[in-house]
Amino acid sequence: MRSDRGQSAPLGLKIAAACGLLFLHLPILLIFVYAFTTEEKSFVWPPPGLTTQWFAVTWNRPDVWEALSLSVRVAAISTAIALVLGTLCAAAVSRTKFFGRETISLLVILPIALPGIITGIALRSAFALADIPFSFWTIVLGHATFCVVVVYNNAVARFRRTSGSMIEASMDLGADGFQTFRHIVLPNIATALLAGGMLAFALSFDEVIVTTFTAGQQQTVPIWMLEELIRPRQRPVTNVVAMVVVLVTLLPILFAYYLTRDGDQIAGSGK
User: Fold this and answer.
1) How close are the terminal C-alpha atoms of the chain, in Å?
2) Of the residues 3, 27, 75, 183, which has the maximum number of CB atoms within 10 A of its CB?
């Protein structure tokens, strides 16, 4: 019997796939091209000339560094909170049975399923009712709502693929809860947590809508880019920053994919 894997895809399917990829990625390539243009005030195609001067200009812009620093700090702390809360929620849902477990699981993933503007309005209303001024921490709390979901989804899937007999054997051999977690559970879920953490960092770094409702007068990189597009003064600088955002978000996603692509095997299930 002939295997389907050896058959070539139809020409029409190849063309459709190529058109789809171009539609998705050609605008990103244009961002990279306009980062080198000599035209300062408008986007002209083709660019009248190419230069690398905007990289030096961007490097010396203090507002860029302030926005970048804020985005990195927010993403890092939001990811740390998400790793703790997401892992604990995943362990509870996947390893224990209790009334309302599926409802709790739904409530955990709900923030990322809802439109961002709904989450943003809800958070802004909650902060106003609690008389909490907008600050660095309001942005962190806003980002943590969806970062927890990313970590939770990765962790709960890995928990469910980890054999419970390994934990039971560890406990039977005299290990306490902490030792079992350190030597049995953590090694099995570490790559899932790392992947979830990197995805959470990438999502937080380029988040716009929730940040708009929770940042007050502060500017993360995406908010800074929106402001620059509305009131431009050096358009290529915006494209240079966009290149940084693309790299900062793309590399963790690729690394997360690499870590989780072979995660469909059940650890401890035997041969």
Assistant:
1) 28
2) 75
